[in-house]
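Render this sequence as a predicted structure.
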Amino acid sequence: MRTLCSLLLVVTLCTSPALAAGKGVVLNFNEVDISTMVKFISDLTGKNFILDDRVKGKISVYSPSKLSIEEAYNVFVSVLELKGFTVVQSGKVAKIVPSASARQSGFTLLPSGQALPVNESYVAQVTKLENISAQEALTFLQPMVSRDGHISAFGPGNLILMVDSSLNIRKLHGILQTIDTERTRDGLEIIYLKNASADSVATTVRQWLSGSDVKPAGQPATTGGGSTGSVLADQRLNALLVFGNESTKKAVRELASKLDVAPPEASSKVNVYYLENTDATEMAKVLDGVVKGISAQATTAPGAAAPQASPFESGKITITADKASNSLVIMASPNDYSNLSQVIKKLDRRSKQVFVQVLIAEVSLDKSRELGLQTGVLGGGVLNKYLTVAGLYDPLGTLGTIGSILTQGGTLTPDVTASPVNLTSVLKALDKNGLVNILSTPNILTSDNKEAEINVGENVPFQGSATQSSIGTTTSVERKDIGINLKIKPQVSEGDYIRLDINQEISAVKDSKGQAIDLITTKRSAKTSVVVKDRETVVIGGLIQDTEDETVQKVPFLGDIPGLGWLFKTKTKTRKKTNLMILLTPRIVRDAADLMTVSDEQRSKFGDSAKKIEPVDVQKEISGK
């Protein structure tokens, strides 16, 4: 059946109109014997093949596009090479043998200069070198010869013999064309540098050579022509490798001596940079990451795309932070230090500050009121309009104005048509009706992207474990902070918007009938991130607490009589709901003028006596005059 399929393929291709018209052939073989493929190629190309007994196996070829007869033959040779076989031309017969035996199979010797086939068939060629010795070329080319190939040198004739696949010999010829030049024949000279960087000097010399008229002795200079020399930089030796004739090497020596001078004293390799605004330790981490990241990008794997030019030279850069002076000690070349200085100047800028006004309050809610409060972010005069707690009873209509407590000037505007309400009056009205309990009104100033923390409370003892001993019972006491803890981290963004990371916790001790062992604590916390515009207020609410109190009022002695005592006493149960609200108003402080304005506003709250503090004359106080 396999033979029948092979014959059908051959008959189909031989009688195909496309093949007859010279339009190409399509190769599609799936797991067929190598002998079947050889028979097909033989019929297609008219070549005579002899198969070694060791040539066995199955091959697959898929070619959706049409190929010419020559291309089809090259594909055939490549498939054989993948299987470890090759084609050796011997007269009018092509031998198919294992690649390891190709050198002993009478390969074709092509004369120097003859075009090589573009396939994997084994050939031999002798090449004469003009400028370098065959032995030097042999040492250079040996690692590039394939496993089953061979290369040798004939010293008297300065010849190189190469036995390998045709494609690999073509690659070796390309390398020889690069190294077998007059420039290489002239020899190499190494110029060691003492002060300047080899990379920097090599770049300058190359630019100069590309436009110079340096020519070998005895030859006229050509207008607009370049030098035949070549200059490479060796970073390890900090030296220049110069290829070229004596005239070129002499010119490079003279130019290098002029460039290899000590840098100015101000451009020392060890520099100290004093920071004005940024912490030296943090800056050192950032710069170290930048230098390491660029160095990693500059190292590319073989076959990868060429890296972009690095702003830093390849020399080692060391950055050390000095906390005492808040400075950076940088060891780098003058060029690298100049580039790093530009980065530091952009990073070492005065950051903005944020002044946050906070109001933490508990709003009382009875059963007739709707519970809950939506979180909102509103601007000064608009906040109160949406903050009213919905319900059937709102004394004085002032509960909805609490959102404007933090507005400037101490006035509130419940509606665009209403008259201003004094801050003190509003708080008194709310407190008198038992609707609000102001827990804390802290203010805090912090730098952009730096966390600030407010703690208001007390350290309460709690009874711990008890230990029995022969002496008696020992009870441990543990103390915990109870009160208000607020953490705020502001981050200023474009358009005067501020992101606030808020972590708030309020804990309290319930009424206790006993000692520390009977203490019960309550905790309400909220953790969130909000974005608010400068000087607008953000409200966080909805943390509702339900408490029940029982009160007994009685006539002494009479109220304690069993049964009849209820005629002389009353018991009252009170259920109370409180809604915890946090109002925050951030304000961006850009410069000293803004800071002075904020300070004056805060100082004015303490009265006129705090606005002006008279200096104390110490000498006068001591003398009593």
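Summary. Residues 1-99 form a domain with the Ribosomal Protein S8; Chain: A, domain 1 fold (CATH 3.30.1370.120). The chain has 16 helices and 27 strands.
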